[in-house]
Write a structure and sequence with these properties.
Blueprint (H helix, E strand, L loop, with lengths): L4 H11 L7 E5 L5 H8 L4 E6 L2 H13 L6 E5 L13 E6 L11 H11 L1 E8 L2 E10 L1 H7 L24 E2 H4 L10 E2 L4 E7 L11 E7 L4 E3 L1 E9 L7 E3 L2 H4 L5 H7 L3 E4 L3 H4 L11 E3 L4 E8 L7 E7 L11 E2 L3
Parallel strand pairs: 1-2, 1-4, 2-3, 4-5, 10-18
Antiparallel strand pairs: 6-8, 6-9, 6-12, 7-14, 10-16, 11-15, 12-13, 12-14, 16-17
């Protein structure tokens, strides 16, 4: 991530108006880069908190080499274990504990805990908020690597192996070692919808519902192969500065490869859910074929109790039982 210059500029720009003369806490300080930025921007003091012993040693080296030891103090601990005196509490909380899924590394819990225990009332939190998005896609290339192709097996029927395909969990593009924006045949099969928005200055995990269902419309005829999850976060209430993991935003950017390899996107493969419910255990997933204009229901289920991850279920609106739909939205 250190080579993602756009991400680094985002944090510099986000902190610049707010940290001069202030007490700053950096949660998940890592290399110490954000702490060094805050000190350079004129913070009165910076408390860098990092759970990795090795990273603490490297961050201390970076702090010393950049002559900021008089401003930055680093602690080896989880932020949830740190205790501060009242006069030590922060005016500004900054953190980059984002994952391939926006909340996947526990950033909401760390922020909420820091707001309550380590900061003054009304302390500014950077980033101020963020949103998680989903979009349906088609890509024969993606299908080629995620399912058994009959024309590749010398005429043998190996379709039973397809029953092992995981269509119930999210994986990350970086785990598969590819960039979604380089797939030559990727087609957007729906609008991108926002299914979660978080205010890091106010939200707690209990504000996130367990389940939400959204109504989508197929944009083209074809087969839906996957749901893509990406996010964006913003610097302040006015959303003056943003960073995103949307595939089109990293395509061709000099920092794009670094971001895609560090974060990338979440990806969940899709099968025809209603046919799967009627199939035998060893039946391979049935393709989810749609017609342009067909209405679909995308249900998002958040992990309990942490609410850090989620999984999708895609169904046809014409088939889904209305009693199954607890909350419906057209997206934002």
């Amino acid at each position: 991530m250190l080579n993602d210059s756009h991400r680094n500029q985002f944090y510099w720009d986000a902190m610049e108006p707010f940290v001069t003369g202030k007490r700053v806490i950096d949660i998940g300080a890592g290399s110490g880069l954000l702490s060094l930025m805050a000190a350079k921007l004129g913070a009165e003091s910076v408390l860098a908190i990092e759970a990795s012993k090795d990273m603490v040693a490297l961050a201390q080296l970076n702090i010393t080499r950049n002559d900021q030891s008089d401003v930055i103090r680093i602690i080896h601990d989880m932020s949830s274990n740190v205790k501060l005196k009242e006069e030590e509490k922060a005016d500004v909380i900054v953190s980059e504990t984002l994952g391939a899924l926006m909340l996947g590394e526990g950033t909401l819990d760390y922020m909420a805990d820091a707001r309550k225990r380590l900061a003054k009332p009304g302390a500014r939190v950077i980033p101020a908020g963020g949103a998680q998005f989903a979009m349906l896609i088609a890509s024969p290339s993606l299908a080629q690597v995620s399912s058994v192709q009959s024309d590749c097996c010398k005429g043998f029927d190996l379709s039973a192996i397809g029953s092992l395909q995981d269509t119930g969990n999210i994986f990350f593009t970086k785990q598969w070692g590819f960039r979604l924006n380089l797939l030559p045949d990727l087609v957007e099969m729906s609008e991108r919808i926002q299914f979660l928005e978080v205010d890091f200055q106010k939200s707690d995990r209990q504000h996130i519902p367990s389940t939400k269902t959204f109504r989508l419309t197929a944009l083209k005829d074809g087969v839906i192969h996957a749901v893509v999850a990406s996010w964006e976060v913003w610097s302040d209430e006015e959303r003056t500065h943003k960073i995103t993991t949307h595939p089109e935003d990293t395509r061709g950017a000099p920092w794009g490869f670094s971001r895609d390899m560090q974060w990338g996107q979440g990806l969940q493969l899709v099968e025809d859910f209603d046919l799967a419910c009627k199939s035998e255990r060893n039946t391979p997933p049935a393709p989810f074929e749609v017609k342009k204009g067909e209405e679909l229901l995308l249900t998002v289920r958040f992990s309990v109790p942490c609410k850090q991850t989620f999984q999708f279920t895609l169904r046809r609106a014409s088939v889904a039982d209305a009693k199954d739909v607890r909350f419906t939205d057209k997206g934002q």
